[in-house]
Specification:
Elements (H helix, E strand, L loop, with lengths): L2 H24 L14 H12 L4 H12 L6 H25 L9 H30 L7 H28 L10 H18 L12 H31 L10 H47 L10 E8 L10 E7 L5 E8 L3 H21 L3 H15 L5 E11 L2 E9 L5 E3 L5 E3 L17 E7 L3 E5 L2 H4 L9 H9 L6 H10 L2 H4 L8 E8 L9
Antiparallel strand pairs: 1-10, 2-3, 3-4, 4-5, 5-8, 6-7, 6-9, 9-10
Helix pairs in contact: 1-2, 1-3, 2-4, 2-6, 3-4, 4-5, 5-6, 5-9, 6-8, 6-9, 7-8, 8-9, 9-10, 10-11
């Protein structure tokens, strides 16, 4: 179908839908045959022009003309009413689309507010004013009834913009309705509940209107905008015909007044549910953005890949805590010096979020720079301690730094620890040996005493480093003891770094049980598997 034919079909379809809804609304007109308290065409025309463009205005004009022909007023009056209806839709759509950057998904609170203010309250005044003035000029209403007629017209149109327009906008713009946490059976239960409460409320004379609000709120909470508009439409579908049948809490009022009260009540429920849905979706978007930023920042704080160093095998495993939108402080480094030595570091900047990220970045880059200047791990950590204190105090950071000086049969390893769990040497025969002298965390005090510890590594031996998440991430239900960890590592003696990490993660299996850790877990394994290039005995 070419563009012109498609446009013509859309105009005719809009006119037909407008006409049908208008005839239904006019069947509920009482005081004046052209004024009704229930006017869905306003919502239909506003939604159509917002969703598909201003160029569909002829469909509104044609539908309004056809609907008012034969209502007992003159041709000029019919033209005046149709003009008011068309200008109302154009004004509302223009204000929303061109003035306030309105989004028909109604996924922002501001969109709901602008729909209420510009669409429901302001633009509807155009039709009410032009329409009642046309009827007054025709003699269809008396000047003494003008204010009442204008109020009924305005509130009837307002109800259409609050109940019908949101339903159409959400139905079109949010298809196929994914992302909300609610499930199909839950939706069926809510729909049945909303209908049952609406039927109960509007078949009794007792003032029980407050019962109508909770379930639409639940629907908005579980199904967001689609849930809010569906619950509103179900409520309106029962409230308006039952009120027209002189049932419910407004039965004692005159016909137009009771329908206005029912329409305004349902419109209020609609706005309440839509605002809640918008708050929830805005929060959901914010959480998604935070998660993406956190994951990106976390990745930037950890090396993209381990460097390839001849004669050395290495593997790393990082498991973030369950709060994926919060940046942790775990970090590591594997560096090859110009003299052939290897620097290995693992650390944990205490805390979460931006402060931990800043401390992590400072620690990584300071360690790299200090490793070029100094050879002893204790001095390297001392430089990092001074840098952390200069940046901020009372933000401790735990770090292990090991320096491996390789030779033909292995390496001499020197280790310094600042408040971190001791690294473990896993011998090729399965023996597990802790190494290092404990000291206070870095970044707390200037006169920190750091001590170097030296050990020999043979070919096939591995250095296992980890953050405290390995032992405490599932506390208090499960705490990994040093003996448990040692037993797990013994079974991987002489194996590859990946197999060693798998053995270490095995101690978490009883605790995990599908639940994420409450702290980040970082494991790093460095294994000597050959002599370095150019090494001498």
């Amino acid at each position: 179908m070419d563009g012109r034919k498609r446009y013509l079909v859309m105009v005719i379809a809009l006119a037909a839908i407008y006409y049908g809804a208008a005839k239904l609304g006019l069947s509920l007109a009482f005081e004046t045959s052209n004024i009704t308290a229930v006017w869905a065409p306003t919502g239909i025309s506003l939604a159509a022009l917002v969703l598909f463009g201003f160029r569909l205005w002829p469909g509104v004009a044609l539908g309004a003309l056809l609907a008012n022909v034969g209502t007992g007023v003159g041709t000029l009056t019919v033209l005046g009413i149709a003009t008011g209806n068309t200008l109302e839709a154009l004004a509302g759509a223009y204000l929303l689309v061109r003035v306030v950057d309105f989004r028909p998904t109604l996924s922002r609170v501001r969109d709901v507010v602008w729909l209420v203010v510009l669409g429901a309250f302001l633009s509807t005044m155009v039709s009410a004013t032009i329409g009642t003035a046309s009827l007054l000029a025709d003699g269809a209403i008396e000047s003494g009834d003008l204010a009442t007629a204008w109020r009924t017209w305005w509130l009837g149109d307002l109800g259409g913009d609050l109940i019908v327009a949101p339903a159409i906008m959400v139905a079109v713009s949010q298809w196929p309705y994914r992302g909300a946490p609610g499930r199909p059976l839950e939706a069926v239960g809510l729909a049945v509940g909303v209908a049952a409460i609406a039927a109960f409320t509007f078949t009794r004379d007792d003032p029980l209107s407050f019962l109508l609000l909770p379930l639409p709120i639940v629907a908005a909470f579980r199904f967001w905008q689609p849930g809010a508009v569906t619950a509103t439409l179900l409520t309106a579908a029962l409230a308006i015909p039952l009120t027209d049948d002189m049932q419910g809490p407004f039965a004692g009022y005159p016909p137009d007044d009771r329908l206005l009260l029912a329409t305004v009540l349902v419109g209020t429920i609609s706005v309440s549910a839509l605002i809640l849905a918008a708050v929830i979706t805005e929060r959901h978007r914010a959480e998604q953005s935070m998660r993406i930023v956190a994951e990106t920042l976390q990745e930037s704080l950890l090396p993209g890949s381990l460097p390839s160093i001849p004669g050395v095998q290495a593997a790393v495993d990082f498991r973030p805590a369950g709060e994926r939108d919060i940046v942790g402080g775990d970090f590591y480094e594997l560096l090859e010096g110009d003299d052939g030595s290897i620097g290995v570091a693992i650390g944990d900047a205490i805390g979460k979020g931006a402060v931990a990220a800043a401390d992590t970045a400072l620690a990584r880059y300071t360690l790299r720079a200090a490793a070029v200047q100094e050879g002893l791990p204790s001095r390297i950590l001392g430089i990092l301690n001074d840098a952390l204190i200069r940046q901020r105090q009372d933000h401790p950071c735990t770090v292990v730094y090991a320096r491996l000086k390789r030779h033909r049969t292995g390496a001499i390893m020197t280790v310094a620890i600042g408040g971190h769990p001791k690294p473990l040497i896993l011998r090729a025969d399965g023996t597990v040996e802790p190494i290092g002298y404990p000291a206070a965390p870095l970044g707390v005090r200037r006169d920190l005493r750091l001590t170097d510890h030296t050990a020999q590594l043979a070919l096939g031996d591995a250095l296992f480093l980890y953050t405290d998440g390995l032992t405490d991430a599932f506390a208090p239900h499960h705490v990994v003891s040093p003996d448990e960890l040692a037993i797990a590592l013994r079974s991987a003696g002489g194996r590859s770094p990946d197999e060693i990490i798998a053995a270490a993660r095995g101690v978490l299996a009883p605790a995990a049980n599908g639940v994420g850790p409450r702290d980040d877990i970082l494991l790093l394994v460095v294994r000597l598997d050959g002599e370095p290039d150019g090494a001498s005995g």
